[in-house]
Amino acid sequence: MAEKKTITVKNAIGLGVGSMVGAGIFALLGESAAMAGSAVWLMFLAAGVIALLTGYSFVQLGIRYPTRGGIVEYLVRAYGSGTFSGSCSILFYIAQLIGVAMISLAFGKYAAQLIGLTDNLAVWERVLASGLVVALAALNLAGSKLIGKIQKIIVISNLTILGSFAVVLSSHADVSHLAVNTWPDASPILGSLALTFFAFTGFAVISNAADRMKDPKRDLPRAMFATIGIVIVLYVALALSVIGTVDAQTLTSSGPMLLIEAANTAFGPLALKVLLISAVISTITCINGGLFGITNITFTLAEKGQLPSRFQEDLRASTHGLSISVVIALVMLNFLSLTTVASLGSATSLLVYSLVNLGALKLVKGTLLNRTLISLSVVACLFAITIWVIYTSRSSPSSLGIFAFFLVSAFVAETLLQRYKGRHIKPDADVA
Fold this sequence. Notes:
Structural class: mainly alpha
Radius of gyration: 21 Å
Order of helices and strands: HHHHHHHHHHHHHHHHHH
Distance between the termini: 19 Å
Oligomer: single chain
CATH class: Mainly Alpha
Number of helices: 18
Strand content: under 5%
CATH topology: Amino acid/polyamine transporter I
CATH superfamily: Amino acid/polyamine transporter I
Helix content: over 70%
Number of domains: 1
CATH architecture: Up-down Bundle
Largest sheet: none
């Protein structure tokens, strides 16, 4: 019996917004502002435009290949069942792990602040982050649905808090803080583009729901563009209100605590506590969702022949994918800074999305408008990652080296899997 179509446009928008707006914006706004200063709102707007263009590619691919395989399916369709598509799929998996590591480090900072820890802060932040990842992994391995049941409520609450915060904070804003003469040089402004794009990357999940929509050709574009549009408005409003509230020093030096500092500046300790509690709860649910998503990725890759077959067990029973993923995430969050992790996640995600856009240009045949918009998405993503490489090579060569290590590791892992396991990634046989 065919699966019942259950995803409406409204459901898909809720799924997309929930995947995009979470704990990430708490950390990424501050990290981006450290580079772009008072021009950070413009970079969120530019990143939103790139997301809209890339979302168009995902819409076209989702309509043509309505499957839950998502990015993995699009890569193998575009580049064939070879080493390249397999390596790209592993790189996508690495990007998700980096996201979990970034949010975990942010949790450590928020939790330490909430508890009131001051001594050996860097150590305690990593201890708290590691403890949360291990605890959530244990809950997932035990099959607990406790956090999953309240995730939707927390997402709605978080959106309400952030939206209300942006509106109320704007009444305290000093518009002179937004003047162009307060902007830093062009190089760091453009250098922040990859980070601001990272805050949008959850929109890809919408195309995964295409096979459960009644009319993907009509519903998928509506859901995709409405979702990205809502998030653009929220992010730009938050950035503008924060810039107008805090001084230049606080804006560029607060890092992941920027939103918290803005609340404290405008409304005092009570608002600071509310934002801290919201941030802590958001990070917990975000990491839990990330771990579950990563387990689905390892399951999908195993199902398609990309990972050893022992990963292809029932998700509740399988410990392989989640356990290995947790170990890798723990290594990242204990040996890399939040700034480095955020930068690496940005670049890795941009590269994967660039490859999907190129694949769409190859696979989607249609009107001149289709080809033009997909071509623009390719140019936009490649521009953003090129800027990241140039800026990072000057400001943090070690991050560029780690990024290169990830690329080589993905290729080596795929080569070894094919040579010794004889398994190759395969397209979904149920999709034309």
